[in-house]
Every structure is written in structure tokens, then in C-alpha cells.
């Protein structure tokens, strides 16, 4: 009889109707126009070779499908593998997912670009970053291949993929981190139930199943051997970034066995190193979601408990531990209630919708007894203020919070001076801070609170490398050279306004 860790869920169900429009091709007008120009000259110019690079889910296969349709419409013979290149008109060779299991190998692709390659041939070699062999790299260089890095879609192009139906919290948090990746947006739209019905909490919620939009990722994870599968599930629970010690504790595996599993996950491009920090992260947040959702409920509950124990022993910030607290706390656990309150207070100024979710989670854990009436009132009032700071967005339990009297209770300052209000010391610092984007302002505020880059990355749900990029922009835009100068500008040093959430 297999243990719970060996079980794997059934294949994902069919995509929801909300994503029915996702099959339509969206965007990529510049790439299509360039390809049309190449096709128009296919029989009069030397072979044209394109090196198409893009992360999983960004739309390489969809683009190649449209390119094939356009080539056939011109009467060109289209090939999708290393077969015969004979045809009445110059052939168009489209090689998708090169270097991946089941696809064209790098050596086969390199041979097609070698000295024996036919003239008047348009070749597109599509692959993931880091999945090309040295031989193919040399062949692409020798063929004079034009490298095209396929990035995400623009924000205005994401509506047909389901972005228009997201709740405010997921629109402002997860969608912003999507980078416009179409697969990411489709999965997000399948899990978010939309305004008015979605709680806006961390995804995926424990009760959600894997949607059809995530079938490709599910297939990759399901094909893993037993040990790497256990490691990837532990990583899905552990957090946005994880290290060897944390994975070993969460997976209850020896570190040597975890290292073997990590090697397999790196080779499959499911996880990637985070700079030189010794930490790892999933290649994308959606990959983590599917790994998490594929873990059986009982195993997931225990994994949250073990992850929480490790993080608390390390002294991690409450907002880093909050998701584990919420997923394994019991009703009446006042320590967990206070932990969620602390997490909400840490995020209230920069991410009020996230803070509102933690306040609501704390309220759900608090028994409805007279002994806790004062604490319940305090929680509900702070939740109401988060709803106000979020611009009137729907917030769980907001109607309950609105009925609470606030007489005699100090108010939380959710809008720090300098990011919308003028800080003491003059308008100069405020105007300089106005040069920052909303995400750069969040990074600046957290730097002013003394948070490290790794802590900021965990708080914002992005990689350590991404925070380094944001921080370099903050330094450049503010014309500063140190974190202390940033803290001075946002009011954490003497003479400035207090950025800490105070009462």
C-alpha cells in the first residue's frame, strides 16, 4: 500500500469556461510582422535562422503554431521535425522545445543547421533558457542566427486570458508578478474566483484542485521519480525561496537524499539557484502552486507545521511565517492569532489587501466568546482600516469590522509620509520618492525598516535577484549610495516621520 507521500493526484480536469478565450492567439504583433517579412523573401535570400528563447508558458508553442499557419498560407512547405525537407516551395522548419524530453534533441537541431542544410530554408529553433547544448550553440552562431527572447505580454493584452476577472488582491499581487506570462495568467484566473467571492489569500487555497490550465506543469511533476517528487512537494510548501536545511526538515529526508532530488529538479528546470546565496526558488510561482496543490492534504498539513517550526527557530519575520500559521493553526490558538496580527501589521502600509487577509484569518481563529471580545474588536477595526487603505475593495469580514466602535483606540497610520504625504523636513524627499514606481516604493519602505534583501524578497513573494534589481533602480533614482540614505528619505532616521506601523 503506497504511503501518502507516494500518491499523486489524478490528471487535471478540463480548463474552466473562464479560460475558453485563452485559446485565441494574443499579441506578438512585432514578432509576426518580422516573420512575415522573412517569409516574403524566403526564396530569394540565404537561409534565415531564428533562435527563439523563452520561459515555459510564455507562448513559444502558440507562436510557432501561428507561424506555421502563415507559412502554409503562402504555399510554403512546413516541417516540425528532422524529417525530409523536400517540397515544392522553400521549407519552413519549426523546432519546438528543443532539448526537452520527447522533443527534438539539441544534436538533431545542430545537424539541421550544419553544412548540409538546404538553401532557402527558414528555421526557427525554440527552447527554454539553459536548455541548449554547446554543439547547438555553436551551430546557431555559425548559421548567423538572430536571437529573439520571447517575453511576457503587455498588461492590456492579458484581459482575454482571464485577467479581467481577477479579484483586487490577486490583480495587484500575483498578476503584477506574472511578467505577462500567458500560462501563469490562465492558471491564476482558474484559481481566483473573482471580485466579491475570492478571499484574496495566498494561492492555491488548500481546497483547490489542479485546473486543466496547469496540465503541462502537472505532467512535468508527475514524471519525476519518487525522491525528487517528495523534494518538490516540500519546496512547494516551504516558500518562495528555500534552502537545503529547510527542505530536509519539511520533507523529513536526509540532506544527502535531498541533494540528489535537487539535482534532478535543476536538470528538469523546475527549480533554479537564487544568485550565490545557496538558496533555490521555483522557475515560476505557478510551478510552485502546482507542486503545492499536488501534495495530499495530510502531508501538506504536516509539512506546514515543520516549515513553521524551522522558520520560527530562525527568527524569521511574522509575515514570512504567516501562511504556515494560517494553514496549520487551530481555532482558539491565541499564539497563532497574535502571529497573524503581527504579519498583518507588518504589511498594512505596503500591501493592505494582504494585511486584510491575515486579519480575517486571525478573526476566523478567534473563538466567539466574551473573553475575547476586546481582541476581536481590535482585529475587526484594523481590518476595516485595511479595507479603507485598499481603496474600498471588498475585504473578508469587512461588514463585521465596520460595526465595531473605535472610541478610545489609537488609529493605525497606513499611509507613510513621503509616499503620498509630505515628510517632515521639506518637500524635497517627497518629490524624490515620487520618482519611484509602486513596487520600488515598497522595497524602499522595507529597506527603511531594516529588512534584508532576502527578507524583502520573501515578504513580496519574488526572488532575491529581483529585489537586487529593484534596489539598484532605487539607488539610481534617489541618487543615494547606501541603505541608510534610503531610510533617511522615507523617514526612519532622526528627524523623519515614523514608517513603522504604530498604535
UniProtKB/TrEMBL annotation:
One annotated GO molecular function = DNA binding
Sorted alphabetically, which Gene3D superfamilies does this protein's record hold?
Answer: Winged helix-like DNA-binding domain superfamily/Winged helix DNA-binding domain (1.10.10.10)
Domain (HTH luxR-type): give its ranges.
429-494
Superkingdom of origin organism: Bacteria
GO BP annotations listed: regulation of DNA-templated transcription
UniProt entry tagged with the keyword Mitochondrion: no
**What does the UniProt keyword field contain?**
DNA-binding, Transcription, Transcription regulation
Name of the protein this chain belongs to: HTH luxR-type domain-containing protein
Amino acid at each position: 500500500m503506497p504511503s501518502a507521500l507516494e500518491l499523486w493526484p489524478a490528471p487535471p480536469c478540463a480548463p474552466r469556461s473562464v479560460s475558453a478565450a485563452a485559446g485565441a492567439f494574443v499579441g506578438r504583433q512585432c514578432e509576426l510582422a518580422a516573420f512575415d517579412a522573412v517569409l516574403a523573401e524566403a526564396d530569394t535570400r540565404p537561409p534565415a535562422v531564428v533562435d527563439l528563447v523563452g520561459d515555459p508558458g510564455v507562448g513559444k508553442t502558440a507562436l510557432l503554431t501561428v507561424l506555421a499557419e502563415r507559412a502554409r498560407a503562402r504555399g510554403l512547405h512546413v516541417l516540425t521535425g528532422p524529417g525530409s525537407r523536400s517540397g515544392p516551395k522553400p521549407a519552413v522548419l519549426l523546432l519546438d522545445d528543443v532539448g526537452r524530453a520527447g522533443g527534438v534533441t539539441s544534436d538533431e537541431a545542430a545537424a539541421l543547421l550544419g553544412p548540409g542544410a538546404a538553401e532557402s530554408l527558414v528555421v526557427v529553433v525554440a527552447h527554454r533558457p539553459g536548455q541548449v547544448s554547446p554543439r547547438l550553440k555553436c551551430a546557431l552562431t555559425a548559421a548567423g542566427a538572430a536571437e529573439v527572447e520571447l517575453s511576457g505580454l503587455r498588461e492590456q493584452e492579458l484581459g482575454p486570458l482571464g485577467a479581467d476577472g481577477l479579484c483586487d488582491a490577486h490583480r495587484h499581487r500575483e498578476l503584477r508578478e506574472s511578467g505577462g506570462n500567458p500560462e501563469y495568467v490562465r492558471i491564476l484566473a482558474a484559481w481566483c474566483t473573482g471580485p466579491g467571492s475570492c478571499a484574496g489569500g495566498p494561492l492555491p487555497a488548500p481546497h483547490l484542485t489542479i485546473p486543466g490550465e496547469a496540465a503541462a506543469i502537472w505532467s512535468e511533476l508527475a514524471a519525476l521519480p519518487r525522491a525528487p517528487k517528495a523534494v518538490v512537494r516540500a519546496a512547494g510548501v516551504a516558500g518562495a525561496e528555500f534552502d537545503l536545511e529547510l527542505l530536509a526538515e519539511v520533507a523529513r529526508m536526509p540532506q544527502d537524499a535531498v541533494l540528489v532530488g535537487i539535482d534532478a529538479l535543476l536538470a528538469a528546470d523546475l527549480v533554479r539557484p537564487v544568485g550565490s546565496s545557496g538558496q533555490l526558488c521555483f522557475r515560476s510561482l505557478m510551478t510552485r502552486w502546482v507542486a503545492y496543490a499536488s501534495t495530499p492534504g495530510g502531508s501538506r498539513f504536516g509539512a506546514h507545521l515543520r516549515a513553521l517550526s524551522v522558520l520560527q527557530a530562525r527568527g524569521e519575520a511574522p509575515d514570512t511565517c504567516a501562511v504556515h500559521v494560517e494553514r496549520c493553526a487551530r481555532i482558539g490558538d491565541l499564539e497563532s492569532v497574535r502571529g497573524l496580527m503581527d504579519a498583518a501589521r507588518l504589511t498594512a502600509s505596503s500591501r493592505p489587501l494582504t494585511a486584510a487577509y491575515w486579519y480575517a484569518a486571525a478573526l476566523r481563529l478567534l473563538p466567539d466568546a466574551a473573553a475575547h471580545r476586546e481582541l476581536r474588536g481590535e482585529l475587526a477595526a484594523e481590518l476595516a482600516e485595511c479595507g479603507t487603505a485598499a481603496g474600498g475593495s471588498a475585504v473578508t469580514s469587512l461588514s463585521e469590522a465596520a460595526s465595531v466602535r473605535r472610541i478610545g483606540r489609537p488609529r493605525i497610520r497606513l499611509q507613510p509620509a513621503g509616499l503620498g504625504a509630505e515628510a517632515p523636513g521639506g518637500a524635497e524627499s517627497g518629490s524624490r520618492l515620487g520618482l519611484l514606481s509602486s513596487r520600488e516604493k515598497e522595497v524602499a519602505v522595507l529597506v527603511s525598516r531594516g529588512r534584508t534583501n532576502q527578507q524583502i524578497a520573501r515578504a513580496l513573494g519574488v526572488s532575491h535577484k529581483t529585489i537586487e534589481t529593484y534596489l539598484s533602480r532605487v539607488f539610481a533614482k534617489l541618487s543615494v549610495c547606501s541603505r541608510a540614505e534610503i531610510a533617511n528619505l522615507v523617514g526612519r532616521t532622526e528627524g523623519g516621520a515614523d514608517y513603522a506601523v504604530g498604535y
